[in-house]
Automatic annotation (TrEMBL):
Source taxon at top rank: Eukaryota
The protein's name in its UniProt record: Kinesin-like protein
Residues that bind ATP: G97, Q98, T99, G100, S101, G102, K103, T104
SMART domains: KISc (SM00129)
Domain Kinesin motor: start-end pairs: 5-346
Major location (coarse): cytoplasm
Any GO molecular function: cytoskeletal motor activity
Compartments in which it is found: Cytoplasm, Cytoskeleton
Family under the similarity heading: Belongs to the TRAFAC class myosin-kinesin ATPase superfamily. Kinesin family.
One Pfam family hit: Kinesin
Keyword Signal: no
Keywords recorded for this protein, A-Z: ATP-binding, Cytoplasm, Cytoskeleton, Microtubule, Motor protein, Nucleotide-binding
Amino acid sequence: MVKETIRVYARVKPLGRRQQAGIYSVDDDEKSPSNLEIIVPRDLADGFVNNKRERYKFKFQKIFDQEAKQDVVFDSIAKPVAECVLAGYNGTIFAYGQTGSGKTFTITGGAEHYSDRGIIPRTLSYIFGQLQKDSSKVYTTHVSYLEIYNECGYDLLDPKHEASRLEDLPKVTIMEDPDQNIHLKNLSLQQATNEEEALNLLFLGDTNRMIAETPMNQASTRSHCIFTIHISSKEPGSATIRRSKLHLVDLAGSERVAKTGVGGHLLTEAKYINLSLHYLEQESISTCRFAQRVALIKNEAVLNEEIDPSLMIAQLKKEIQELKDELALVTGKQRTSELSQEELLQ
């Protein structure tokens, strides 16, 4: 069992044409956590007597500046997690921030250039590449794609998704078993035998995702989405199965409702988004504060192994037959009848 705190990273988005440059500094040291300092100049409209705080300093595992490329982000963040998932541990990567901060670009990527691929497609490429290299085990991979919209869950890979309204789809519900394990009812698992099949499922889910335009972002994703890669592995002849999951999460924007300039059903969406993200105050600073709290959480990573019942039964039957043969050699009699309950308990 491995116990360590959650690793938190910060990425600074390049400025758009209409965006004003923010003031920040990065103290980046490869041997120690990086420090990000945000400087908020005092507003003269508040008067000369202003006790408003100007400087905020936050500590991260690593900080990616405006020049950081997608492959660097993947190698630093997602690749180590993917390696642990291949070893049998569960993993989660999620992006948090306000609308337009680059969450979807980081997680899914852009469509203009191949180099703009995000964490999900790069992770799929890496995982299937590693599976092809490993011939010592038999692997089975599935993917699922869950959308949480207005606090309701929907299956983005449901075959009826394209032909129905979102409200007509069966809702994904959370269920808990006696061992306190969480199960999602009505969420389908789609098998993907290679990278191409997995990417096609990703594109299908992205097409079905709820997208709406807000003044802050012309292609604003208005829902939380969780793309999960399920991996099962087993050595030939072994009864032990390793099962692991990698959750890649793109959260909806966390900004103030007043800043988005939305109304009607979009206002309802924003309220639910803020509710589920535990809405905070000033966006960049509150995002960093949220990150600092997340960094305090300690995870206990457990290797997910279980016994294949069918193989175990076959092995036990073989062992029983071998014991019967040994008994026949000792007694000189071949036993044909099954052992009684009393004999089994002896």
